[in-house]
Amino acid sequence: MSNSDVVITGLGVVSPIGIGVDTFWASLMAGASGVRTITSFDTSGTPLSFGAEVLDFDPKEFVKPRKSLKVMSRDIQFGVTVADLACAHAGITHGVVPPERFGVEFAADMMHCPLDEVEMACRASAANGEVDLHRWGREAMNHIFPLWMLKYLPNMPACHIAIAHDARGPNNSHSVGEASSLLAMAEAARVIQRGSAEVVVTGGTSSKMHPTLWYRESAGDTSHNSATPAAACRPFDLNRDGAVHGEGAAAFVFESRAHAAARNAPILARVLGYASAFEPRRNGAKIHGAGIRTAITAALRSAGVSPQDIGHVNAHGLSTIADDRAEAAAIRDLLGDVPVTAPKSYFGNIGAATGALEAAVSVMALVKQLVPPTLNYQTPDPECRVRVISGEPLRASKGVALLLNHSSMGQAAAMVLAAE
Fold first, then answer.
1. For site-directed labelling of 47, which of 97, 298, 368, 383 has its Cα 20 to 30 A away?
2. Which tens digit of pLDDT belongs to each residue from 60-94?
3. Alpha carbon distance 237, 68 (integer Å)
4. Furthest-apart CA pair in the chain: how many Å?
């Protein structure tokens, strides 16, 4: 089976700029930022006061049965929702796919619980103002929900999705930072290509809206532009000052072409190729871009396309000085003056889900033949010599997109998609 035999027939989105494909796309076309002052919890005393939150999300509208919400964190709720939306979009209902030929490949991060869930447990284990781990087992567990751990395991989105859709085929969870979603999507394509399934739900989910995570991550890599949050994420712009945290999820239905044709399913895009690579980054060393370059070269080879075939690059565009410069150099050196868009400017860095939401941008761009511009790109950085799409959407002249992501630990992933 060739790479072109894997097609995308469904898409579901929960994002800071809208829930559902239509709202998501309308926000992209309107240039609407999802980065704003955080309202879901008190940020006083925390290092950040803004980010890209998902607003107006009611899990009771999407998660069935509702009692399942007792064992679902916000990340899991997002994941289950986008999988349902993607299957509905693709027309995948009960009985359409034989259960043993239906798989799930999904990305997720370490999940953080609301602090009030563990407050009493910590208080019960405290001695002299500090938590005493020797007392934890004796005192704390009486204050912990018995199934608490099931709410926060990163393999649970894939599990809940499979249960909800009776998908008994290959099932894997991917937790590799910001590279997770593209790696999950690549494995979904492989599952179909090697004949292990006809349909795979794939994508990613994550929420970086948590003070514990903010304290754990390097404050130097995040934007501090609290005066104008919507302008904080500025990929490739000279005046960028760091990344912005976000939350959300996106899911796709990957399907063998034969199966899609047999049920007359409309095709959104084709998966042409993919690749991954690694660039060791010990002790917080800055990125040089070797992994990105290897992933780009291998993905083009996998897809059977040349640099001249690429209509747009969907860049990682983290909005940090070092990451953007390394990525821009790789794109320029290997792909030339190709148009580049950076969707994080709309919804920030969403960890394991960032690649899935960015892929949703390119899938819709291929469908609509319009590539959304990068927000907040005003002053080009001489060290980022790439042709950033800004101001207005770009009318696509070539129906091929290259998607890029990389993690802080050095993993890099690339995927090539094409219009049908």
1. 383
2. 999 988 889 989 999 999 999 999 999 999 999 99
3. 44
4. 68
